[in-house]
Amino acid sequence: MADRRFNVGVQLHPQHCTMEQLRDAWTRAEALGVDSLWTWDHFYPLFGEPEGAHFEGTTVLAAMAATTSSPSLGLMVGCNSYRNPELMADIHRTIDHISGGRVYLGIGSGWFEKDYEEYGYEFGTAIERLHALRDALPRVKARVAKLNPPPIGKLPIMIGGAGEKVTLKLVAEYGDAWNTFGPVENWSKKNEILNDWCEKVGRDPSAIERTLCAGVEDIPNLDAFVEAGVQHVILMSSPPYDFSALEQILAIAEG
Questions:
Q1: Within the chain, what is the greatest distance between any pair of CA atoms?
Q2: Do the Cβ atoms of 146 and 164 come closer than 8 Å?
Q3: pTM of the model
């Protein structure tokens, strides 16, 4: 929204719920006027009953794209390990067409070991996964450039993570948006390191959207986050998807 101090989104965790609950949640969020809708990219719940109900992220994203009309959409963030880079590009290009041009291509190196073990992916080490992400990003961009038809929208690449030596350098080189967590001091420090990487690689820092993955505990500090450079606040929400905190954030953004 043009008159907001910052954009507001919500990440709907696709765990411990039915598809009807998820659909109702993104419908209600759009009606509230959110700027963006997100889900995550896992195969099992991250908390609560570890074998509880769970839905796959890119399929949920496609359903969101088909049944909403205004918010931007994305995975926050897609796991590079679960699909090869060309497929990752094609899935998001296709969902971008379903949405009419509203999709982010969210990507990160991956971390949830149970997903890897249960679905037969090699977990490896954190640095191996980071290096795989480094190798994948130019392939993603190259495939997007080849796809016929091309995306309708800009299909911005959002990179999630805060590793100072590798991840933030990759954001400076390839990212159109960046996402990480608070508290304010942590976010601000990582943001400054990202700015330093932009200077080193010759990238305009203003070309990268700065986003915050927010919990309820971050709401009292939103002014400080915005002062530190946050442009887009994305609230994490789990079933039963009580949006009272989201309404608070929208009010702050519009105040």
A1: 48
A2: no
A3: 0.96
